[in-house]
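Bug report

Summary: structure tokens for NYN domain-containing protein differ between web form and batch submission.
Environment: batch mode, default settings.
Steps: 1) Submit the sequence below via batch. 2) Compare with the web form result.

Sequence submitted:
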Amino acid sequence: MVQGMEKTALFIDGANLYSATKSLGFDIDYKRLLKEFQTRGYVLRAFYYTTLVEDTEYSSIRPLLDWLDYNGYSVVTKPAREFTDSQGRRRVRGNMDIELAVSAMELAGHVDHIVIFSGDGDFRSLVEAIQRKGVRVTVVSTMHTQPSMIADELRRQADVFIDLVDLQSRVGRDPAERSGRMQEPPRFLERRSPAPGPDDDLSDN
């Protein structure tokens, strides 16, 4: 690490980020995302949080998680909860807010800057608690959707708010690559872009 560089930790709410970028019409290239924030400071840790449906033989998110695990991210998962709605349809609900919050508070004493990729207003009190420890907090989400994906109270609490629209050119995946390689498994040695993101049903939103 270059002396004087800001130590940063990234905390990605996987389902929330996926929903936001899907609404904006682009995919995240997680290799580019990590490189983007490495140019801004020393990235001590990069966490990705998501729930998994355990009883399915294959999930579209598993290739992404494998790729992330091999390419500089710490992946945190837990089983999703299944339930039947009032129309008798099977639904899946998952939430990683507690896990993300605990990890962020634990790491706050070791970094200068925490970046949270989520628009969930429940994180407002977490951001405030981290700031009380003297750590700067950036929130990444978007206001360019209807309704907005970023809770107003979270945006106001953050030291810096970055709209995903402003990051798209630097962290988005090339649409041509998406159409040509969407069905291919990730090839870890080639450090290729990840497979498609998580399923909508894994989001609480």
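Above is the batch result. After comparison, the two runs are identical; trailing whitespace caused the diff. Helices lie at 14-24, 30-38, 62-70, 97-107, 124-132, 152-157, 164-171, 175-181. The longest helix spans residues 14-24.
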